Structure formats: structure tokens, C-alpha cells
């Protein structure tokens, strides 16, 4: 089974009040420690998205944990209901290890992040956007301003302060 199917099975089991345990073949196939995000959409709109930035457990476990959290613990949305499941599309994004970047000015920053997954940090604030977000926010300045706001920072902070910035790529698995 592919990662998106694994995520769906975990959500289906949780909706039925059960715990999903994949077969040994699936566990073996996704046994490497990797980080992932699970994104749920309904009618093309975000319905939940939770993930890990750092590989801390086998990928199959990360997929199951993040699928359940995206369905039931994303604070932006109510818990997923069984009646919604047929209208939900699931995408699993497996992340490469984030790479810290340095930049000399905002133009250099914009060039280095384009098309990548981006993690920003400043003090205790931190946020990320998957590379897929570039499909919705294609302008680098709007992307960075939105990401700063997501982190609880002033939207234009990226223009005047040195943010910690990491980039990553993903391998996507969609239904």
C-alpha cells in the first residue's frame, strides 16, 4: 500500500474506534526513519494538515500518527466526521532533511527558497510551508509575509530581521 492509502486506513480505523496496524510488508517498506506531513482536502479546500519536520520514528508510524492528528487534532478544524470521508482527498509529503541556508539580503533569500519547503524561525516562533503552498502563493514576498504571520510574527519581519531559514524538498503521494 502507498503512504496515502496507509493514511486513509488509519483514519478509517480511528473513525471506527479501532487502532490500525499495517501488515509486515508495509512496515518493512516504510521502516526508514523519515518525517512526513499528511494533508487532507475536501472539495479542494484544506481540511487538516499535521506533520513532522524531523525524522524521529519509522515512516509508517509517522504517517499513521500524522493522519490521525490531521483528521482529529488540527486546531483549525473540527474533528473529521465519518460522513466526510468519501469527500476527503489525502496527500502524504515525505520530507528530505531540512537544510539551513544563509542569505546576504532579501533578494538572495527569495531566490534560495523559491519552490522549496521553507521553515522559518525567530526566537521561539517557528512555522513551515510545504513546497505545494507555492501553487497558491507564488510570489516570494507574499509567501514570506504569510509564513511570518503563520509563525505569529509581524508579516514583514523577514524584510528587516535575519530569520533562521531552512529549506527542504518532498516526495508526494496522493490519492
Could you explain the architecture of this structure?
There is one protein chain. The strands form two sheets. The chain has a four-stranded antiparallel β-sheet with strand order 2-1-3-8, with helices on one face. The protein has a four-stranded antiparallel β-sheet with strand order 4-7-5-6, covered by helices on one side. With 175 residues, it is an alpha+beta fold. It starts with a helix and ends with a strand. Helix 1 crosses helix 3. Helices cover 32% and strands 27% of the residues. The chain has helices at 3-15, 24-29, 59-72, 106-113, 140-150, 157-160; strands at residues 35-42, 45-51, 88-95, 99-101, 117-122, 125-129, 164-168, 170-174. It has six helices and eight strands, in the order ααββαββαββααββ. It has two domains: 3-95, Glycoprotein, Type 4 Pilin; 99-168, Dna Ligase, domain 1 (2-Layer Sandwich), CATH 3.30.1490.150.
Which features does this protein show?
Glycoprotein, Type 4 Pilin, globular, 4-stranded antiparallel sheet, 2 domains, Dna Ligase, domain 1, alpha+beta, 175 residues, 6 helices
Number of separate domains: 2
Based on the coordinates given, report the CATH architecture of the largest domain: 2-Layer Sandwich
Q: What portion of residues is helical? A: 25-40%
Total strand segments: 8
- Provide the spatial order of strands within the biggest beta sheet: 2-1-3-8
- Strand percentage lies at 25-35%
* Name of the top-level CATH class of the largest domain: Alpha Beta
Distance between the ends:
11 Å
How much is the radius of gyration in Å?
A: 17 Å
* Helical run tally: 6
N-to-C SSE series?
Answer: HHEEHEEHEEHHEE
Low-confidence stretches: none
> Major sheet, described briefly?
4 strands, antiparallel
Overall shape: globular
